[in-house]
Amino acid sequence: MTRREVAEFYRRLAEANPHPETELESVNVYTLLVAVVLSAQATDAGVNRATRALFAEVDTPAKMVALGLDDLKQHIRTIGLFNTKAKNVIALSQALLDRHGGEVPRDRAALEALPGVGRKTANVVLNVAFGDETFAVDTHIFRVGNRTGLARGKTVLAVEKKLDAVTPAPFRVHAHHWLILHGRYVCKARRPECWRCIEHDLCAFKPKTPPPPERAAARAG
Questions:
Q1: Residues 138, 154, 164, 208: which is the catalytic one?
Q2: What is the pLDDT of residue 220?
Q3: Is 107 a catalytic residue?
Q4: How many angstroms separate the Cα of 148 from the Cα of each of 1, 11, 141, 159, 161?
């Protein structure tokens, strides 16, 4: 895409959803961090179902450590890889107490040093909790970036760096959410809904998918 097309791409997303937000539920920065860690290879909806009761009871690292591994596993047992994730959550909670006074650090290196926290998780926390201009590239953003031509790359890091380079200033804080939501609900993996996409004419993807037969028939009628 040209610079002008990139700006128009984001302008349309912003117009359609001026105030995008994460779909992960949390009550503070700490529970956001936990939710993001739990969301790896899981849906936001599935994580939310598992954490509503948990976060009503546990909203600090100290409370999580006191809850203990076995009880945490019971709360999150419906989430994929819950055994490993539970161990990481307990370990990162203890690390926050030991290294950061129980507070979530606003520092990428410090976040990535926590058990179970990688670059994508750190980017989400920095963006959602602290308003930093970061690009957390998940499977949705990776797909949208490559499919549309907005930010092509063979790795998630390459796509992240391309997004960082091409995204104009007015759109940088919310870009991460716009792209995730676009990938989740419109530019879907198996069958993108090109027929209702607001980026239809800017997108490099070909051939565009036609509307389902029932919609096509309704339009013809």
A1: 138
A2: 55
A3: no
A4: 9, 15, 10, 12, 16
| Burial class of residue 79 (count of CB atoms within 10 Å of its CB; 0-12, 13-18, 19+) | buried
AA identity, residue 22? T
Contact (Cβ atoms closer than 8 angstroms) between residue 176 and residue 127: yes
Q: Is 138 a catalytic residue?
A: yes
Count CB-CB contacts under 10 A for residue 181. 20
Say which of 120, 132, 154, 208 is annotated catalytic.
120
**How far apart are the two ends of the chain, measured CA to CA in Å?**
36
pLDDT tens digits for range 96-140: 999 999 999 999 999 999 999 999 999 999 999 999 999 999 999
The pTM for the full model equals 0.89
Based on its alpha-carbon atoms, the radius of gyration of the chain, rounded to whole angstroms, reads 19
Contacts of 165 (CB under 8 A, 6+ apart): none
Determine what percent of the chain is predicted with pLDDT higher than 90.
90
Nearest one of 100, 104, 85 to 31, comparing CA atoms: 104
